[in-house]
Design goal:
93 residues; 5 helices; 2 strands
């Protein structure tokens, strides 16, 4: 009996599907954060983006005052929480 090691193929498929799922939910999280952020000039709202690198999704803003706003009136953490059901649907959790 010959045993075939498919570990790399399986891990590759897991990574591919994870990345695809993150790319699917990224705009949903971004749109929720943009909807919920405090708007004064609109610059912060316009600067919220997402980036998927491998199996990592980063949502945020490059503006230097974004962390202060997030600490005072959170918009990123609540966006993640509000999209939890969609995330579960995409990843079939």
């Amino acid at each position: 009996m010959k045993i075939t090691d498919n570990t790399n193929a399986v891990l590759g498929e897991v990574n591919r599907r994870t990345s695809a799922g993150l790319k699917e939910i990224a705009p949903i999280v971004v749109n929720t954060a943009k909807r919920d952020v405090v708007v004064v000039s609109g610059d912060l709202q316009d600067s919220i983006t997402a980036e998927v690198e491998g199996n990592k999704l980063t949502v945020g803003s490059p503006l230097p005052y974004a962390p202060k706003i997030e600490m005072d009136k959170p918009f990123l953490r609540p966006a993640l929480e509000k999209t939890r059901a969609e995330i579960k649907r995409v990843f079939k959790i």
